[in-house]
Amino acid sequence: MIPPMLLRLRIQEPGEKNVRLWIPLFLLWIFLAVIAIVLSPFLVVIALTLVFFAKGRELLIFLKALMEMLASLRGVRIDVSNPKRTSKVLIDLR
Amino acid sequence: MGTQEDRQRILQMLAKGTISVEEAEQLLSSLPSGTASATSGTADTQASSARKAPPKYLRVVVEPKAGSDNDRVNIRVPMQLLRAGAKLTALLPDQARTQINAKLGEKGINLDLGKLSPEDLESLMNELSELTVDVDGKDETVRIFCE
């Protein structure tokens, strides 16, 4: 599964400046990957410590579930609007 | 068409109990593929209902009624996100899981979170395609469904 690559954000409030953003999330994933690579020696030490204390399985489950959740965010859409007050909040992960 | 009559005859035999579901399925599959795969809309065998496409999104729609100042809300959540979140129940401490199971039991839900296998979860997610919640409130209507 591919994590969301773009975040579309739209905030519209009467009397306020409209916000329309397209945020490239793929840059965030690249940044997180770089951070993970840099911190990998420490993560290995933490993982080995957890395995020593018989918590390695929980760590694997957590990491796997976390990756699946990030990848599953693609398609999330939250749309709140009020036609009378012409306000709108849109969060769309693509 | 002759094949359509054959199909209806098979379904009538199944309805009367003359043949079993497995035999009906074998007979239907032996019909020419152009008609055997078509759905007449008049019968729903157990085999066809088992092959429903699993739902992809959970939708929550709140529509304000005329004259109401409430917001209109439209939320779409991928079912895959729910699956991934459900897997996190494996990380719950035993004490928390016991309390949750007890609370569920009080409400008549005999579900042990610790024994929820991936197959059970998948079956639960597939059956959610039939879920529809309609709440007709004073100022808004709420719909929860899967698509």
Radius of gyration of chain A: 19 Å
Quaternary organisation of the protein chains: heterodimer
The helix content of chain B, as a percent range, equals 40-55%
Q: How many β-strands of chain A, per DSSP?
A: 4
> Ends of chain B: how far apart?
34 Å
Q: Summarize the largest interface: chains and residue counts.
A: A-B, 24 and 21 residues
Quote the average pLDDT of chain A.
85
Biggest beta sheet summary of chain A: 4 strands, antiparallel
Strand content of chain B: 15-25%
| Topology, number of strands of chain B | 4
Structural features:
heterodimer, A: alpha+beta, 4-stranded antiparallel β-sheet, 2 helices, 28% strand, B: 147 residues, alpha+beta, 7 helices, 4 strands
Overview of the molecule:
The complex is a heterodimer of chains A (94) and B (147). Chain A is of the alpha+beta class and 94 residues long. Helix content of chain A is 48%, strand content 28%. Chain A has helices at residues 25-52, 56-72; strands spanning 6-12, 19-24, 77-82, 87-93. A four-stranded antiparallel sheet of chain A has the order 2-1-4-3. The longest helix of chain A is centred in the middle third of the chain and has 28 residues, at 25-52. Chain A is elongated. With 147 residues, chain B is α+β, with helices and mostly antiparallel strands. In chain B, 45% of the residues lie in helices and 18% in strands. Chain B contains seven helices and four strands; from the N terminus they run ααααββαααββ. Chain B has a four-stranded antiparallel sheet with strand order 2-1-4-3. Chain B is extended, with a radius of gyration of 22 Å. β3 (77-82) of chain A pairs antiparallel with β2 (72-78) of chain B, so a sheet runs across the interface.
Set down the secondary structure blueprint.
The complex is a heterodimer of chains A (94) and B (147).
Chain A: E1 6-12, E2 19-24, H1 25-52, H2 56-72, E3 77-82, E4 87-93
Antiparallel strand pairs in A: 1-2, 1-4, 3-4
Chain B: H1 2-16, H2 21-30, H3 33-36, H4 46-50, E1 57-64, E2 72-78, H5 79-87, H6 94-106, H7 118-127, E3 132-136, E4 140-146
Antiparallel strand pairs in B: 1-2, 1-4, 3-4
